[in-house]
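batch_manifest entry 22 of 60
target: Type I restriction modification DNA specificity domain-containing protein
source organism: Erwinia tasmaniensis
requested by: lab member K.T.
priority: normal
notes from requester: please return tokens only, no post-processing; we will run our own comparison against the previous entry in this batch. if the run fails, retry once and flag.
--- input ---
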Amino acid sequence: MKLSDVATIQTNYPDADFWIVRRGSLKTVGSPSYEFNPESIGIKVTRTDLVLSRYLYYCLLHLHQSGIWEPVATGTLSLVNIKVSDVKNIVLKPR
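--- output ---
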């Protein structure tokens, strides 16, 4: 199951549950936030029977801290970005 199966994921999404930093440095790109920014990738959980938004936030925080975005971030010098499709294709494994 992919993240796109349980959530709506898009940019400029003020009604999202939380947002992922889409553009920044290698250390900040991909970090989740509860602060809306039109440039960020918004995530709104649609399948609350499978995952809760607060739990998903902490899962994505863990992925960011694990460095999952560094190999997929594109760009030059100090400004890199991730694609919406990178977030949509995150694989979720049930316990």
